Structure formats: structure tokens, C-alpha cells
Amino acid sequence: MNRKCLPFLLLLFSVPLIAGEPKFYLSQSRAELGDPVFAVFELEGATQVRLLEKEFHGKGIKAVYWGMEDNTTILNYKAYRKKMLKYRLVVSGPGKYEVPEISLELDGKRIRSASLVVEFGAKPPGPRGPGSIWNRFFSNESEEGPADGDLKVVFQLDKKEVWMGQPLLGFYALYYRNSIRPYFDRDPSSSIEFPYFRSEILSGMSLNIPETVLYDGVPYETFPYNKEFFVLTPLKPGEYSLGSTSFHLEGQLQSYFHMRTIRSVPGKIRVKPLLLAPPNFSGAVGRFRIETGGSPADSKLGEPFLLKLNLQGKGNLAPVQDPIRSSCGSPDCFPEITLVQSVPQREFKELDPGEYGFRLNYSYTYSVLPQKQGLWNRGTLSFVYFDPYLGNYSQLSISLPTVKVGPPAPPLSESNAEKRKDAGWKWWFWGFVALAVSCAAYLGLYQWKKIGKRVETLKRLDEWIGSKRGLVLKHSVLAKGLSEGEAALLADCKSKEKALTEMYSKLDPASKIRLLGSAKRILNDPRQNETI
Question: Whole domain around residue 266: which residue ranges?
């Protein structure tokens, strides 16, 4: 009875995993006071999640929302996504605690965590002798931690003043004193404020900043938050405070203090309006150079040729859609020139000592359809941009190439057209013949391999049968799990002293199929080598 119930119980317990039910577990069930312990919800990647609370309280313990991770696993060329919501467990002291009930809303349905127990042990005592190495390096072990004024997260900008449209770099940095550098991470549920700025986030980079700074006349040690960098482009003149959000901080083991949440200190920036722009201003802000090329020396009337233009430099080229059109200030100028492709390329790097940003390389490809014979030359065009380093507008010259436009190519005569048409039909005919021959050869090879495999199977079956005949052979076949009809067919085929390959050709189509099926089942049986 118990053995019969076991498969049913295994199937019952595996249903939540197959159905994609959320999992709830602890990162560890026992830890020392101060070690990070998380309560984790593991969900399917497509699940819609809504947080109901950021903190859940129990007796001497609380669970604080720490963030959400997206995890992607590739198995057998299939991608499986899952989300992990983490709640940091914070306790008042050593002991066993029941994890407070955590509730979420998943796809509009409210769920609650299961009951779990976590144990925090006391920290092992360390030496406390006067003048010891411990006192010198680990003297800040009070769980109260440093004062609030000793910890700051500041949103730093690489510029204090910019022109409208001029990109700047922003990043977070930890300022700390009277403690060993704590862990810190941005609260993902807290939005970041960038009013009237277009923002772009960069990750996976490293930035070097001074190790110590003076902030309000007080020295602080610093450490950059290397997980996120922001490229910000101002859209409106004025004075702004950027980067206000929340950060979680927690002491390391050497100078532990409980997790606390603080607001970042925003960065101040002044955005100056651009000067009165000339009519052919392209909208670009920065410092650039321009190159042209890719055009042929000769062309024919009525046949288009290509013209390429490259803009390189640093700054903001996003407003520039068509540099040739912007040079004349009208979309109707140069009707014979058509923009066919633009490819923006950029690389984030240190442009100059202490200045970070994008190194730009924008390429524009044009199609030119000349309207008359002779020399095609549009002369020199101008590309106007704002140079923030000079505080004024600058101009680049676009030297378009000179192309000799010859007479149009002569039209094809009727005889030439007919010859091309006949040649086309011939290509189609011989191509069809080659395809038919290839298909016939493939089918012939396939049939030949199929016959060879069938003969090999019947010979192996003859070897297995050996000298068995009549009822002995029938009993042996039935022992292999075949049906009565299959056993009778095989016994009839071996009633005479002839090979199965010879008897096979005399059978009807249905019997041939049954005989081959029986052979495969017998020969694939792991017991086929047994003596019967």
C-alpha cells in the first residue's frame, strides 16, 4: 500500500514547482549578529509584482525591503527568467526569531510568506587589551554606528555650470568619517529626480575620484557608487537640484551598525541659455570636426551616386538629423540629394584629463541624382554648432566633392532585350533540371540506405532465432513482450529453412511492416542476448 502511494505523493509535491508557484526561503537560517540574512521570494520572470509594504515587523525583528534581482538561466537553448525579491532581516539582539509574515501582490492576487525561524548568535569575543591591534583597527564596533552627519551619499556632477544641450556626467559617491567604509546600495524602489534633463544610465564602469574631500569644511573619505553612472543633457535653462533618492547603508563586521536609510545630497547645477542662434544652426552642442568622401569621380546622367559625410567629436549630436539640410536652413534645398542612412556611433571614455563623456562618430550616407551633364559641385556648405568651451557659435566647412556627370547610358535595343530574356529562360530551365537531378540522387541514396538497413536487421534477427522453430520460437517471441499475432507471423516465416531476407520479399505490405516492427522490438530489447 505504501509503495503504491509513493508515486502519487511525489507527483503531489512536485505540482507547485511545475506550476511555477512562488518560493519563499531564507538565505541562511543561522548567522552571527551583524551578518546579512535575507528572506527571499523567488518568482517567475513574467510575474507582475506590487509591493504592499517596505517593512514588516515581528517580535524583536523586522524585514526591510532590500531590492529585486532579475535572473536569467539558459538551458537547452531556452531562456528561463525569474525574479528574487529580498527582505533584509534586522534583529534587536541574539536569539531565535520568527520571521514576520511578508505579503505581496502577484498578478493581482495577494500572497503571504510561510512561517520560518531564524537564529542569530552573539559575536565571538575578541581581545580588548589597551594598545592592542584590535583597539587600533576595530575600535568602532558599537552597533549604534557613526553619527548621521558622518555618513552622506552625494550626487556629484563633473560640471557646476553648463549650457543648454551640453552633456554632463553624474554619479553617486559615499562620504564617510569615524568608521570603516560601510556597505551601501541604492533603494531600487525610490525614484531619482532629474527635472528637465534627459538622462541615460551607464553601468559596469569604474571611476577614480579623490580619496578624501572637504565637505562643509569637514574632511571625509570617499568611495564612488560604481554600479550606475548618468549622462545628463539639460533641456531647459535654470538652476536645478539633481539626483535626489534613497540609499541603504550598513556597517561592516569590523565596525558594524544596523542598516539605515538616508536621502542622497542632490547636486546643484546651473544651465545657461544658448545665445541667439543663426538661421542655419544645426542644434549640435560640443566640439566637432567633419569629413566627406565615398563619391566617384565620374557618373552618368540619370544614375545616382553615393556621398558620405562623417561628424566626429564630443558633445551632443542628437538634434542633428541631416547636416546638409541644416546647412541651408530649409528641407527643400538640394532636391537632388537624399539622405538614405545615418549610423550614430559613440564610446564613453575619458575625453580630457578629468572630463568624461562620449566620443562621437556619426556617419551619414546620401544618394545624389544629378539633373544635368557637366561638373556636379555644390561648393562649400557650412555646419554651425555651439561650442560651450568658447561660449559662442562655431562653423565647419563641408567641402562637397566634384563629380563629372556624363551623358546617360544608351538604352538597350530590342534584340539585346530579347537575348537577355532568352538567356534568362535558359538559366531557369537548366537550374530546374539541376534541382531535379539533385532530388532524384538524394531519394535514390536514401532508398539504398533504407534497403541496406532492412537487410542488416533481418540478418541480425536470423542470428537471434538460430535453430528455434515452431512452438519454441513462438514462446521465445512472446517472452519478449510481442503479441500472439506477431509471434505467429515470425513462426510461419521460419517454418522453412530459408533466410528471412528471402521470405520478406514474398510477404504482403502489411506483413512486411509487422515483421520489421517485431525485429526492431526484439533486437532493441536489452534481454536479446539471453539464452532461451
Answer: 148-272
What is the spatial distance between Cα 317 and Cα 283, in angstroms, rounded to a whole number?
8
Burial readout 33-51 (b: 16 or more C-beta within 10 A, e: otherwise) = bbeebbbbbebeeeeeeee
Decide: pTM greater than 0.85: no
pLDDT digits (tens, 9 = 90+) for 442-482: 676 666 666 667 777 777 777 777 766 776 676 777 777 77
267 and 163 inside one domain: yes
| Distance of alpha carbon 193 from alpha carbon 196, whole angstroms | 10
Separation between Cα atoms, residue 210 and residue 220, nearest integer Å: 10
- In degrees and rounded to multiples of 5, residue 504 shows phi and psi of -60, -40
Would you say 362 and 175 are in contact if contact means Cβ atoms under 8 Å apart?
no
Per-residue pLDDT at 20: 60
The answer to whether position 168 is within a domain reads: yes
Domain end call among 211, 244, 272 = 272
At residue 15, the pLDDT reads 35
Residue type, 463: E
**304 and 377 share one domain:** yes
Burial 401-427 (b: 16+ CB within 10 A, else e): bebebeeeeeeeeeeeeeeeeeeeeee
Say whether 331 sits in a helix, a strand or coil: coil
Query: Could you tell me whether strands 117-121 and 30-32 are parallel, antiparallel, or unpaired per DSSP bridges?
Result: parallel
In whole angstroms, what is the distance from residue 338 CA to residue 220 CA?
58
Q: Is residue 2 part of a domain?
A: no
Domain check: are 59 and 173 in the same one? no
Q: Where are the alpha helices (DSSP H) in 187-338?
A: 323-328
Query: How confident is residue 258, by pLDDT bands cut at 50, 70 and 90?
Result: confident
For residue 41, what is the domain's CATH number? 2.60.40
Assess whether 172 and 78 both reside in one domain: no
User: Are 195 and 247 members of one domain?
Assistant: yes
Write out the DSSP string of 455-509.
Answer: HHHHHHHHHHHTT--HHHHHHHHHHTT--HHHHHHHHHHTSSS--HHHHHTTS-H
Query: For residue 6, is it within any domain?
Result: no
Q: Say how many C-beta atoms besides its own lie within 10 A of residue 353's C-beta.
A: 5
Give me the number of domains the chain comprises: 4
Residue 464, burial from CB neighbour count under 10 angstroms (0-12, 13-18, 19+):
middle
| Pair 357, 467 in one domain | no
355 and 393 inside one domain = yes
Residue 423 has pLDDT above 60, yes or no: yes
Within 8 A by CB and 6+ apart from 117, the residues are: 29, 96, 97, 98, 99
Instruction: For residue 29, give the nearest of 123, 116, 122 by alpha carbon.
Output: 116
Contacts of 429 (CB under 8 A, 6+ apart): none
Per the CB < 8 A criterion, the answer to whether 368 and 304 are in contact is: yes
